[in-house]
Amino acid sequence: MKTVLMTAFEPFGGETINPSWEAVRTFDGKEIAGARIVVRQLPVVFATCGQVLTRALEEIQPDRVLCVGQAGGRADITVERVAINVDDARIPDNNQQQPIDQPIEADGPAAYFSTLPIKAMVAALREVGVPASVSQTAGTFTCNHVMYSLLHWIHTTNSKARGGFIHIPYMPEQAVHHPGVASMATSSVIQALETSLQVILSTENDIRVVGGATH
Description:
Layout: E1 2-9, H1 19-24, E2 31-32, E3 35-42, H2 46-60, E4 64-70, E5 77-80, E6 82-84, E7 111-113, H3 118-127, E8 132-135, H4 142-156, E9 162-168, H5 172-175, H6 186-202, E10 209-210, E11 213-214
Helix pairs in contact: 2-4, 3-6
């Protein structure tokens, strides 16, 4: 049986909940498309989020990895294309650290592309009625750090795993404190993540990255 590692983050930035964790934690122990789902929560701390992820990767040795994070202000599910090798925080993390223009891996490449079928994921989400799009930036906060760390681990260990990152909007419970900002119900996010997992697990052929486009 295949194993999927799903990760999400603890609350940060003054929020009392993180929609990524509220959705992802519901998948722990489930079986989807013949695969077992294992869930881990990551700290919103630059110094340790990548380390916690790496320990989980080494322990679980997953076939697929789907990392999920909050992107307050975005209006739809955004499937990330690329992670860049930089930490540049507009707000402090949960350890009150605020790195500016710091590399994630000193000797790492400038960027990594997702190895998930991002276009197929977006198409499937739209088909089931969930607003979704491909995002060209995972930002420069801990979400990007985790996505880069994941893909760096896959590359440097020659793992056959495939992985990537999805950003989700605020929950309505959060948006009431941010007038005019979009939100998405947890039930819709859970549907989006389950649909994404179905697509990820049904993709058996190698993912090809050509000219920045993932197929």
